[in-house]
Design goal:
alpha/beta; 2 domains; four-stranded mixed β-sheet; elongated
């Protein structure tokens, strides 16, 4: 077999380093693998071949696999972030540079299933590219990496484009949510307090309980009218809780967290975002112990949705 030649307009050192890492295993098996480098115009080329007595069809197959493995790793680990940013610049140039950076971060999470440990998702993408490269090297021995990515990996590029589109949707929803929270916070800041203090207990399901400092359920005409109006409309649990607190307009509030059921972090973050320094987080006290039992008992200040 002739040498496999890899060409690229950028990042030749990264590619060579990754090839050297792959070829180390071949050399440990006694194969004499060499890498030569040359230039043609603005492109750099690497020639990879097995020399000497170790040349055979099996050695050639190992070489092709090693080159394909190295290149698939380079594409996913090194090039992918640049490809994502290129897509963002091309399709969403009207966002600022900082916003594009955030969208790129969102895209990474989207591609990896929202996980901070994305190995499984990356392995799937690498596997797709690896097999495509191996098929290519079955019939060709020279490859320009940019052209291969653009024309032989269209499904991979489309996966990145789809991830960018979904990331933009997420970014816009979060931006809208942040703006909504900012407006609510401004409203709270200019509103005169109607009550000194409220204790917020988050119960199971879609329930919460609002208590005064004596541990009694808070009752007010404004709140009762609000509950009737809100329950009849299509609102989320979080909106119901925040709207109830804004209706009460407490000077301060304590959110009791010791026995908080799972899935309530979003509600907590919204309370902190709207009420800011007025909010105290309690990680454990006698009131906290009521959250599991008392929050399930219907009352005028216990809201279910």
């Amino acid at each position: 077999m002739q040498a496999i030649t890899i060409g690229t307009a950028a990042g030749i050192d990264e590619i060579r380093q990754r090839l050297d890492d792959e070829f180390r295993f071949l050399r440990e098996e006694g194969l004499q693998v060499r890498i030569g480098q040359s230039h043609r115009g603005s492109f750099a080329f690497l020639d990879c071949a097995v020399d000497g007595a170790g040349r055979s069809s099996q050695a050639d197959a190992l070489l092709r696999h090693s080159v394909a493995s190295a290149l698939s790793d380079v594409i996913v680990e090194k090039w992918e972030s640049d490809l994502i940013r290129k897509i963002i610049r091309g399709s969403y140039s009207y966002f600022s540079r900082d916003e594009q950076d955030l969208i790129a971060d969102y895209t990474g999470r989207t591609l990896n299933g929202g996980s901070d440990s994305p190995n499984g998702y990356k392995v799937n993408r690498k596997s797709l590219i690896l097999h495509r490269l191996r098929d290519y090297f079955d019939t060709a021995d020279e490859l320009v990496l940019e052209g291969f990515v653009n024309f032989r990996l269209r499904d991979y590029i489309e996966e990145l484009e789809d991830a960018v589109d979904r990331a933009v949707d997420e970014f816009l929803m979060e931006r809208e949510h942040r703006e909504f929270i900012r407006l609510l916070r401004h409203f709270v800041e200019i509103q005169e307090p109607r009550i000194e203090h409220v204790h917020v207990l988050l119960g199971p399901g879609h329930a919460f309980r609002l208590l005064d400092d004596d541990g009694g359920a808070i009752r007010s005409e404004a709140l009762e009218e609000f509950v009737v109006e809100m329950v009849e409309s299509e609102v989320s649990y979080e909106d119901l809780l925040i709207s109830a607190l804004i209706t009460l307009a407490p000077r301060s509030l304590t959110v009791h967290l010791a026995d908080r059921p799972p899935g309530r972090d979003e509600a907590l973050e919204t309370i902190l975002g709207v009420f800011g320094d007025r909010t105290v987080r309690c990680e454990g006290c006698p009131v906290c112990s009521q959250a599991t039992a008392a929050a399930c008992e219907p009352s005028q200040a216990t809201l279910h949705h």
